[in-house]
Amino acid sequence: MRFAVLTCAVLGMLAFVAYAPAHADPKYWESGKNTWKDAKKGDWAEYGMDLGNGVRYEVTSTADGKITYKHVMKDKEGKVLSDREVAREWQKCPLFGKLPHKIAVQWSEADYKIGEQVLKCDVATWVAGTSQMGVWYCDKVPCGGVVKQVLDGKDTVWLKAFKTKELGEAKADDKPIEPAAKSKLPRFYQAEGNYYIHKITRAETVTYIKRSVIGVNPDSTTTSAVACDAEGVPASGARVSEAAVTEKEWLDTYAKPEREGETVKTAAGEFKCAVYKSKSGARDIEEWVFDGLPVKRVITEGDKITTLEVVKYEMKE
Q: Domain holding 244: CATH number?
C-alpha cells in the first residue's frame, strides 16, 4: 500500500469517535439555526480551549421573546476574567462554530462521548488556505449546539460539560496534560505538523498534493491529503482525505530495501535514501525513502511513467 497516493477510508482521530446517524440534517446547521432557539431556563454549557482558558453559558430567563444568559470567562488557573449577563434574541446569541460562506463544506456524522452520554453529531469540515477546519454540532447540546472546533486535526474548543432538563448533567473527564505519543513508525510519522508536497508529473501534466501528519499514536499515525499548488495552497473545492498508517502496514510494505544510502536531489534538497521496488498489478514502483519521507517515486506501467518528487517538506526532530 502506498500511503502517499492512495485515499483510504476516513478514520476517527480520537478514541471516542465512531460514526453513527446524526439527529439533525446537516442543512439545519447550514441554514444558521442552532439550539439557542429552544433554550430553557437552567440550561448551561461549558467549553475548554487550547490555550487553557474556558467559557460557560447559562440561561437565566426566556421571557419577552429574548434569551437572557450569563457569560463567564476563566483563565487557565480558573480565575474569573469576565462575568456578565446578556439578553438577546436567539438568532443573535453567540455560536462558537460558524460555517464559511463561500467555501465548500463536507458533512459526516460521528459520536462524541461526554461522561456517560454519547452525543450524535453532525461534523462539518472544509479547507481554508492551507488549514483543514471543522465544527461538530449536536442538537441535544444547549446554548448553540456546538460540540467542538477542530484545526488541522487538533481540538481548539471542546465541550467540557452541559446540563439540560431532558438529558440532565454531563461532564467530560479533564483532558490530561501528557507527553505526545511516541510513534513506532519512521521519523516523518512521529510528529503532528510534519508535511510534504509532492510534484506529480504524468507526461506533460503536472499536479501537486500535500500530505500532513494530523494525529500520532504509538502504533499508527493519521495523515490528511489534499490537492494543492506548488506552495501547498489547496485547490479551490479540493476534497481532503484522511488515511491511517499502521506500524504493521509500514513494515509489510517497507521491510527490506533494495539499496541503501543512495543520494537523491529534488527541489526540496538532497537526501540519502533507502530504495524500494515493488509491483502493483501491471505497475512497477521504485521509491526513494528518507526517514519515512517519500522523497521520490517512479511508477511505470507499460510505456507510461508517473514521477512523484518532494518539492517542499517539514520534518521535526
A: 2.50.20.10
Same domain as 191, residue 163: no
Q: Secondary structure of 206-223 in the HEC alphabet?
A: EEEEEEEEEEECCCEEEE
C-alpha cell at 68: 437572557
- Whether 157 and 232 map to the same domain: the answer is no
pLDDT over 70 (residue 187): yes
In a domain, 3, yes or no: no
Alpha helices in the chain (DSSP H): 26-30, 247-253
User: Would residue 177 count as lying in a domain?
Assistant: no
Q: How many CB atoms lie within 10 A of CB 207?
A: 14
Q: Which residue has the cell 521535526?
A: 316
Residues 166, 38: contact at Cβ < 8 Å?
no
Task: Say how far apart CA 121 and CA 146 lie, in whole Å.
Answer: 9
The residue type of 150 is V
Domain count, the chain: 2
Beta bridge partners of 44: 58, 163
pTM of the entire predicted model: 0.53
203, amino acid identity:
A
The pLDDT tens digits for 85-124 are 999 998 888 877 778 877 888 888 889 999 888 999 988 8
- What helix, strand, coil percent values describe the chain, rounded to 5? 10, 50, 40
Beta strands in 187-314 (DSSP E): 195-202, 205-216, 220-228, 241-246, 259-266, 269-280, 283-290, 293-301, 304-314
Helix (H, G, I), strand (E, B) or coil at 70: strand
| DSSP single-letter state for residue 106 | E
Domain span including residue 253: 187-314
**Angle made by CA atoms 29, 33, 35, in degrees to the nearest 5:** 105
| Boundary-marking domain end, from 120, 146, 171 | 171
Q: Are residues 238 and 114 in the same domain?
A: no
How far is residue 312's CA from residue 142's CA, in Å, rounded to a whole number?
44
